[in-house]
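User: I'm writing a tutorial on reading structure tokens. Could you give me a worked example: one chain, its sequence, then its tokens, then a sentence or two explaining what the tokens reveal?
Assistant: Sure. Here is the example chain.
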Amino acid sequence: MNLSAQFRLQRGSLALDAALDVAAGETVALLGPNGAGKSTCLAALLGTLGIDAGRIVLGERVLDDGTAATFVPAERRRIGMVFQEGLLFPHLCVRDNVAYGMRSRGAARAAAARVAEAWLERVGLAGLGAAAPATFSGGQRQRAALARALAAEPDLLLLDEPLAAVDASGRLALRRELRTHLAAFAGPRVVVTHDLGDALALADRLVVLEAGRVVQQGQVADLVARPASAYVADLVGLNCFRGHCSDGVVAIGAARLLVSSPLQGDVVVTLHPRAVALFDAQPHGSPRNVWSAPVVALEAQLDRVRVQLGGDLPVVAEVTPAAVRELALVPGRQVWIAIKATELVVAGA
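And here are its predicted structure tokens:
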């Protein structure tokens, strides 16, 4: 059972024009900056928000085509939903939360309870069915929410930031568990996240939404090879600039970059942060781009430190902790930047 959705809708200032196709057994991660329309897209798929035009088709069923006659309400769509913080019903015990979808479709209380207990065991919550949701940790609530969604035997599974409310100590374990449960679900799955690590761990394919439109999709290698926007470049950890190239020089506002490219006209230039070299004095040598800029911020990432630099051409460098100490890098410190022309990847805009 595949999901095929191409639709438009207006919600406040957001004009969403989305296209999303997900095969049975495939997990797609929907990424994008705040306000891009990710949650609005999920609401349209779930049926809590009607579309203005287009079609949402799940298997052979048309769920919405923008007309009241065709619109299928959320409770009849057979879609499982896992919200950011689980959103379990506080007045029900965990077992009754998991059984809720089955009970709402007419299942007997005892039968629904047995299925709920089986699902709680599958997600690592055996023996906790009588507990109140308020006594659970963030990770436990998300496990219970996943069990509730899957126990109802949905045709489509939607997850909205499923790891956002989980603390760091439980995040990696829950990420692995989610991957396992998603792989066992036969239908299409859509996961909304802002975290590339979660997307890579959970999804088979990435779809990037910006300002209500899909700007890029594919494997992470596709996004790294040619990011379609500054957001995508930042998401995959690259510097990205748009400018005009003429005779081997790219003009980006007041800045100029020497590049090794025959392209002319509007271009997109990408650069890995590890190719940005930092010095405490002006370097000399082979042809390269050299300028001075202030350190704006530093962010530690495992064995590297990302250094955000300001000036006419803000850029991010990645250096070792030892280099941070040797160069005495702190916000406000003026350093020299050197970038080889051959490290700049230039593509037509």
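What the tokens reveal: The chain has a mean pLDDT of 90. Residues 168-184 form the longest helix (17 residues).
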